[in-house]
Amino acid sequence: MNIEIEDIAKQFGATAALHPVSLFIPSGTLVALLGPSGSGKTTLLRILGGLEFPSTGRVLFDGTDATGLTVQDRRAGFVFQSYALFRHMTVFDNIAYGLRARSRKSRPAAAEIARRVNKLLDLIKLPDIGARYPSQLSGGQRQRVALARALAIEPRMLLLDEPFGALDAKVRKELRQGLRDIHDTTGLTTIFVTHDQDEAMELADLVVVMSMGRIEQVGKPEDIRARPKTPFVREFITA
Amino acid sequence: MTDTLTIPSRPRAFRPATTEPPVIRRVLIGVCLVVLTVLLFAPLIAVFDEALRQGWAFAIASLSESDAQSAIRLTLMVAAIVVPVNAAFGIAAAWAITKFDWRGKAWVITLIDLPFSVSPVVAGLLFVLMFGANSAVGAWLVASGFPIVSALPGIVLATLFITFPFVARELIPVMLEQGRAEEEAALTLGASGWRTFLTVTLPNIRWALLYGVLLCNARAMGEFGAVAVVSGKIRGQTTTMPLMIEMFYNEYLSVAAFTMAALLALLAFVTLTLKTALEWRYADQLAASHRH
After folding, report:
1. Are B46 and B147 contained in the same domain?
2. Nearest residue in A to B193, CA atom
3. Which of the residues A83, A127, B58, B247 has an alpha carbon 20 to 30 A from that of B134?
4. A67-105: per-residue pLDDT in tens?
């Protein structure tokens, strides 16, 4: 699904988190929103997911206006910064949550839910942890469970907020490849937020550099590296 | 290796840095036990001892008197109304305060604590002033056959006021610490607001809620000051258990007074036992939901 952002702005009280920004994301792209904290990247991600509503502007999914669509109707697979796994549920129940929350008409039968959850556990290469609680998992395992939970709802896009932020360097490297693989298998338009330029450059097809609520540059990693458009971008990617 | 690294012969040198020597430990534990005995166990035993001074039969007979019976019934009824209402209020208040940002929030947090800082007698007087026969509202209420002061509604109102903070106070810190991320995750997975509340919020706060409800219940059954002012203390009609205890005591019916007191203490004891039993039964879940 392609995503069009048209002059989206967001005010929090007197402060502008986002100045009007526009962006087109072709279907199936893996996009990094790159910038320092306070650059508005998380706000933009939350607007796409329906967790925040823009003060002005429109969001279009495949050409249809989705600005007023509720968070439930967006069907955005969202991975939160600290994963936000349901701590009182097992991994299996966490992943099954979205399917069980469906209306009676579209809810799969229990056996079908189990089949899909097990398939997702295989996809994240953790087939045997269904019965465990989130508190019994390592940081990297939690991240992958959060990813599986987001994928369970058959999302139209995948949104990840600092997906590698809470992990140590070695696990980061492994999981980067994991995310790339999952993106390539599912073909979903995937947008992740990061403040780490190496991560953005290595992983993404398209990098969006943001600062102070504005988009500084959009481009392929190699283009941004070769031709930084503004002094900010030059400084940020060499830092 | 043995000749280069000699192990000190006195193991005392290896005392772990995080514990005190045995003497100090024993003294601290001893002080704690003495204080508990003097302040808690001894008075409790004295109450039961006094109640049973003239035997079980006599104590039970004093409870089966009609005034005593109606006091017990009234107290249980007030608790049965107040606890669910305040549990619902408390959840709503804590939810609004911790999951949303709005103007005047700081004020509301202060107001929730008001019943803790105002003397219960003053609270009782407030209700008498508002709804008593001398006020316009009160006079109209009495005339229309629905008196509040010196009747059940007044007792319920006063108890609601006094016990309002318990549930909210227990929930607010827990819900603040847990943040909004899990609720947001449930919403992105397609759950409605109500389903999110039932399947995510409520399970995460159930232990804090249980503590709050138990504290609220204990206070609702034990409240004296505010109820004494509002109830009018009509024997057999608006006299709750704590009021009844005072009346018996003032009439030198010490066995009746202490038996009723023992019963009130027993009710508290039952709730505490229930709490401990639940904690023991769900220890694994409790541990899982705290570490994360």
Report:
1. no
2. A72
3. B247
4. 999 999 999 999 999 999 999 999 999 999 999 999 889
Helix, strand, coil % over all residues of chain B, rounded to 5: 80, 0, 20
Same domain, B36 and B68: no
CA distances from B286 to A183, B170, B172, B276 (A): 37, 16, 18, 12
Which H helix or E strand runs over A30? Answer: strand A30-34
Q: Measured on CA atoms in the order B46, B49, B51, B53, is the torsion positive or negative?
A: negative
| Residues of the domain holding B258 | 55-290
Q: Are residues B118 and B221 in the same domain?
A: yes
Q: Does B84 touch chain A (CB under 8 A)?
A: no
- Is A5 exposed, middle or buried (CB count within 10 Å of its CB: 0-12, 13-18, 19+)? buried
The H helix count followed by the E strand count for chain A is: 9, 10
CA–CA distance, B153 with B138 (Å, rounded to integer): 12
Residue A191 bridge partners (DSSP): A31, A159
Q: Can you read off the two tokens belonging to residue B195?
A: 């389903």
| Residue numbers in B near A71 (CB within 8 A) | 184, 187-188
Domain count for chain B: 2
* Distance, first Cα to last Cα, chain B: 44
CA-based nearest residue in chain A for residue B287? A135
Residue with tokens 């070695």: A170
Spell out the residues 6+ positions from residue B107 whose beta carbon is closer than 8 angstroms to its own. Answer: none
Distance from the B86 Cα atom to the nearest Cα atom in chain A, whole angstroms: 25
Chain B hits for A78, CB-CB cut-off 8 Å, are: 184-185, 188
Report if residue B16 sits inside a domain. no
Residues B102 and B176 reside in one and the same domain: yes
Q: Scanning the structure block, which residue is given the tokens 């962006």?
A: A23
Specify the pLDDT at position A171.
87
pTM: 0.81
Helix (H, G, I), strand (E, B) or coil at A6: strand
Task: Write the burial class of residue B81 (CB in 10 Å: 0-12 exposed, 13-18 middle, 19+ buried).
Answer: middle
Residue with tokens 């465990």: A132
End-to-end Cα, chain A, rounded Å: 34
What's at B156, amino acid-wise?
V
B142 and B32 both lie in a single domain: no
pLDDT in tens, A173-208: 889 999 999 999 999 999 999 999 999 999 999 999
Report the pLDDT value the prediction gives residue B292, as an integer from 0 to 100: 43
**Eight-state DSSP code of residue B180:** S
Q: How much is the pLDDT for B281?
A: 80
Phi, psi dihedrals of residue B71, rounded to the nearest 5°? -65, -45
Domain boundary among B31, B52, B73: B52
The answer to whether residues B45 and B61 belong to one domain is no
Name the amino acid, one letter, at A150: A
Q: Which amino acid is at B183?
A: E
Which of B:156-185 have CB within 8 Å of A? 181-182, 184-185
Domain co-membership, B126 together with B40: no
